[in-house]
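yo

u said u wanted the structure for the complex thing, so here. seqs first:
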Amino acid sequence: MMTSGKQYKVGVLGATGTVGQRFIALLAEHPFFVIHALGASQRSAGKPYIKAVNWKQTQPIPSAVREMIVQECKPEHFQDCAVVFSGLDADVAGDIEQSFRLAELAVFSNAKNYRRDPHVPLIVPLVNTSHYSMIPQQRALHQPPLKKGFIVTNANCSTTGVVVPLAALERAFGPIESCIITTMQAISGAGYPGVPSLDIVDNIVPYISGEEEKIEWETLKILGGIVQGDDGLKTFDMHTKQPLRISASCNRVPVIEGHTECVSVRFARRPPPSPQQVREALQAYTSEAYTIGCPSAPRHTVYVHEEPDRPQPRLDRDYQSGAGVCVGRVRQCRVLDIKFVVLANNVAIGAATSSIINAEYAVLKGIVGGQA
Amino acid sequence: MMTSGKQYKVGVLGATGTVGQRFIALLAEHPFFVIHALGASQRSAGKPYIKAVNWKQTQPIPSAVREMIVQECKPEHFQDCAVVFSGLDADVAGDIEQSFRLAELAVFSNAKNYRRDPHVPLIVPLVNTSHYSMIPQQRALHQPPLKKGFIVTNANCSTTGVVVPLAALERAFGPIESCIITTMQAISGAGYPGVPSLDIVDNIVPYISGEEEKIEWETLKILGGIVQGDDGLKTFDMHTKQPLRISASCNRVPVIEGHTECVSVRFARRPPPSPQQVREALQAYTSEAYTIGCPSAPRHTVYVHEEPDRPQPRLDRDYQSGAGVCVGRVRQCRVLDIKFVVLANNVAIGAATSSIINAEYAVLKGIVGGQA
Amino acid sequence: MMTSGKQYKVGVLGATGTVGQRFIALLAEHPFFVIHALGASQRSAGKPYIKAVNWKQTQPIPSAVREMIVQECKPEHFQDCAVVFSGLDADVAGDIEQSFRLAELAVFSNAKNYRRDPHVPLIVPLVNTSHYSMIPQQRALHQPPLKKGFIVTNANCSTTGVVVPLAALERAFGPIESCIITTMQAISGAGYPGVPSLDIVDNIVPYISGEEEKIEWETLKILGGIVQGDDGLKTFDMHTKQPLRISASCNRVPVIEGHTECVSVRFARRPPPSPQQVREALQAYTSEAYTIGCPSAPRHTVYVHEEPDRPQPRLDRDYQSGAGVCVGRVRQCRVLDIKFVVLANNVAIGAATSSIINAEYAVLKGIVGGQA
Amino acid sequence: MMTSGKQYKVGVLGATGTVGQRFIALLAEHPFFVIHALGASQRSAGKPYIKAVNWKQTQPIPSAVREMIVQECKPEHFQDCAVVFSGLDADVAGDIEQSFRLAELAVFSNAKNYRRDPHVPLIVPLVNTSHYSMIPQQRALHQPPLKKGFIVTNANCSTTGVVVPLAALERAFGPIESCIITTMQAISGAGYPGVPSLDIVDNIVPYISGEEEKIEWETLKILGGIVQGDDGLKTFDMHTKQPLRISASCNRVPVIEGHTECVSVRFARRPPPSPQQVREALQAYTSEAYTIGCPSAPRHTVYVHEEPDRPQPRLDRDYQSGAGVCVGRVRQCRVLDIKFVVLANNVAIGAATSSIINAEYAVLKGIVGGQA
Ligand SMILES: NC(=O)c1ccc[n+]([C@@H]2O[C@H](COP(=O)([O-])OP(=O)(O)OC[C@H]3O[C@@H](n4cnc5c(N)ncnc54)[C@H](OP(=O)(O)O)[C@@H]3O)[C@@H](O)[C@H]2O)c1
Ligand SMILES: NC(=O)c1ccc[n+]([C@@H]2O[C@H](COP(=O)([O-])OP(=O)(O)OC[C@H]3O[C@@H](n4cnc5c(N)ncnc54)[C@H](OP(=O)(O)O)[C@@H]3O)[C@@H](O)[C@H]2O)c1
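structre next:
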């Protein structure tokens, strides 16, 4: 394996936030990534990490970063990093990530800012690592053209949950035609301080700003292909060969971690697959990330529960450290074809873990150079 | 008005349970119903109500029932009651309610046992009071034929929430063709002790036994009509003139009271109504129960929220004492036509309040005699 | 009664906050107070109330204030108000309340700013209305001396809960010598947005900044007397005639409304009263506010529960609209003398209701003039 | 070390319960205990474990026990076990554990039945392993006398939390004279189904049957010594050399795991130690179980938090796999001497982990023979 023995220095932007803390917890035990630099706002810069952060993880702060000095998010502090992870606020992620790319750094971002960029792949690592093929064009068309810098984003947490089983189903049964999704999303999805407790104890908020649009749009980019025009330029086809209509309804619920989603799908193919065929296809689905050996990719991309009342967020969100997706209750839908329940850990595969697998993949494939 | 000044004695079966307690709280302030007899299991019978009940309401036990002796659920203890409300467990409701009907009592039941009976109307009082027309046949075909006894049921709590707006939409825009529903149901819907706290704190259970089938079946009976065969016999048509396909996914969430439901509908009529037309139709919808003066029927059958993040169970479940239904987020659905969020108080309009309005209606229409 | 028929115009400062909203809900149904003016920050000023507020109460916004324009918190907008209630943030309450007093307005404040002022009475209306005797001196010593303006504060919500039963016990059995209190405080006590949900779902925070000091200090001022020095000046004696040692431990718990407190006390008198004597003394305790007819004062100042597992916040916080205090589990303490559990509604008697009863008392006693 | 390489077969009684499941999760990874037999009620007996159990842990069922057949709790099925752990219901634990002891088995029990037995040590392994000295007498006085059989119990979960820091303080500063404790206990402490969700969502229950008595009594047995009478018989002295008065108030709170306790203590010694001295003594405290090498004993017996708002159950309950105790907010108490907050994982050190360390200790000390 390419990485044998080799270590890669990585940086974390937004290191004090909810996603940033998860990055740090995960990277502290990583086989080949080594945390080298931490970035956050001016409020935090200059302080040792333990003073800057309001640590909310259940494991203690990894000793390697406790006293590491937090930097401002400027490329000069991250020049030695082969990989830069970003858990930045969308308010600032746009400019900062751009400046890092310009400094020839490889940026793996959780922010939404570049997800709709026509040259930035939106990669859920259990689904569409093939979209890395867009990177050369992203570098070439950049002003000025870049040698090593690029931005890769991963999807919104609620998109991730649904796109994994949909990808599995399309691989097995061909295009999906329509899909209705109702989410029940954890409070950690809103960061910290995030959702006021007065809004969510003994309550549900049937609305999350911008969330439904994200699911409806991002899913098309991720499940779609890349086409090459007559001018040689590649574009994301947004699943237009076989239009896919998606309708999402998003709810915030009093759960700490783990987004639960009720999904109904209609296949283009008639007759549609049976629930049993769907179960088998989901269980059999494997990701290229796992196959090529990304250490954080889960063995079970989709774990299919047979019990009638699973998956449940509290019991299932930490299965495989939250790196896979759990599906249960696969059954017929009287309106579309098949319905089921998905659970995805919004902070793990829905955020930090996706970025890390994406970076592992880029390392293993030689897309990230490494200034070793 | 028929009832002016007249008081009607009523009995409550299952008086110590979650629904039974709500009956008692509501009836204690009723303009013309007077609690006369309370029934529960042998464990409770013979005790004063205050000793028999594990009172869980936020108002104190009404003084009129504190010392009332709980009876076994035998018709002889309820002979003076013009109306008998039942909040019995499904385990025992079948036999007990039958024995009460046989004793010429008018039974208004929350239990599921007779909902699928071909002669028992399943009445959501804000929707299908017209189904009272089945009562004469129910009495006539009973062995032996009855003069006054009958059973009326109301719907399952999650059915009630969805059937009210669907009825409003069908009245305004003609038949609905298909409907996908995802519920987020309160723990009080499972009675007491009901849902163990270890199952629901920081969690969601994406399954409620039998619930999806209830919504999918009951809705058809309620929204359907009554047809008369060549033999003169009436039957419920189960909405077969225009088949209606319903698909429900039911979830238990950590909310005490108030079921929230995300609903997508497709109309038969093309083009479908716009979101604004839907909003207006919902807002304009009135029930016959309110029109003829049932005191517990809500002025706003459907309250339509304009705010983007409403209805919410904690804030909206007590509006109009929980007797109406709240709808919000009416908008286009990319797969079906229109989607929206419904909130219904499962213990009020979803249970006790429905029975009470049904009985008020029966009194006002002279269907219940009253042994005054 | 002095107020018969007469209406008093009142203003509410901080009208958009958690306490402010409760003021408005309560005042909308008040027999003699009429909401005349609303004040909040510049963010809110100039908007109709319904646009300025993020209404979080379970009842709808009272129609009388929906369209009322929110003002900046300047005295000129409140000149016609006989009474001004303040639910202002402590950050700004100091200056604003002072400017209102200077404008000869009667201010009833929930903020902590003037609670330790040697001329401002800290009045829990179920306990120490006698401290109104400090008002003439407050006016006289003000620079410049005032004719009508004054400030009265009520206590911190957790102080209120404990001081009512302590007052009852001191009235019956003489001085208390020491008292250990552990609180379990509702999230609404921190205002809105207040406690982040990530901090409190499935959790307890065993610390509330400044809260323990407030209980330990305020209780002494409230339960203490007023003494007159040789110079004729009155001072609060801080319970020094018989020193009272109080030790408080404060916790935030995932409860929406209602502070629960476990209290152990030791009496000076030996032998101490028995649990049964304590129960009787608590039950018998009446407030002068109730006796002279304050309409918001509760009939049961202290409601004593006999059940072993009460009071509970969800079930008991709305008893008497939250205007009284509930006590339960009165029993022997093996270390001090007697221990018990108190429940007080932090937003009602712990905040808005106290201010309102204080103002009712001032009106009935002629302390507030009324510009009628 | 005595155990090097050697494996010990163990059985688990009540293997399907809350504590039993935790036993299984912990034992599945144990260095020298191997699960050999599982026992539960007749309802479960004869079924493979996976069918008998309603598994509620966040890790999957260990593969080694998935298909193991659950037995009735009869000694013949456990004859090969060097150690038998019991997580039985108190209703049945008395007779079953007695029959196991009689069959010469070593029983480590969580049930309360034998905690008050004058010959059964009540051992919190971080505190009083010296009480193992009672075992020979327990065997000798049994009718008939036993060679190998015995029963050791561990403490109630809320006792465990408080007794560890009290032991540390007594070791450093001599006897404690009095102690007031208020607990906020997790729902998992009541087993499954345990606390109904309707009782605890948005609520506190200020009462747990029998719990206060357990804390007040068990603490004396654990912190006390063993004295030998003139007749040569040993008895537990219940801390009578220096009487210790304990007063506990117990509350159930909506937290899944981890009991939080607010503790105030008064030392016999005058002047009492300072908060800083207390902090140091707690931090320095080590258990014999750790010193002699029990693999499940925590390195930090007591972890002392410096942050003002810790420990918190959600963040701290899994530190050291829940095997230690966390203390925070050490400060002066105005009534007694010192107060602080304790957090103990009720299912780990409060139950299964204590039994396991007790058994490890017994193995390492040769008290348990092992039929190897
Ligand atoms: N919550 C309780 O249980 C409780 C109990 C006892 C006492 N208290 C005390 O009562 C007070 C209010 O508490 P809360 O919980 O209601 O807080 P909150 O929800 O945060 O409300 C604060 C209010 O102050 C206003 N405000 C903030 N800055 C202002 C400015 N510069 N000028 C004018 N108005 C300004 C806000 O108006 P905008 O909306 O315009 O920002 C809002 O109306 C505090 O002093 C608190 O300690 C609270
Ligand atoms: N939960 C805690 O935090 C905690 C802490 C300290 C001590 N404890 C004590 O530990 C014990 C277990 O508590 P838990 O919370 O685990 O209770 P639980 O969840 O109710 O489990 C009870 C167990 O007892 C078994 N059982 C019941 N009746 C039986 C019978 N007739 N014969 C044989 N087995 C029978 C059950 O088996 P089936 O599944 O076959 O019914 C189940 O395995 C109790 O004594 C409790 O007081 C609990």
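Residues 157-173 of chain A form the longest helix (17 residues). Chain A has a mean pLDDT of 96.
cya
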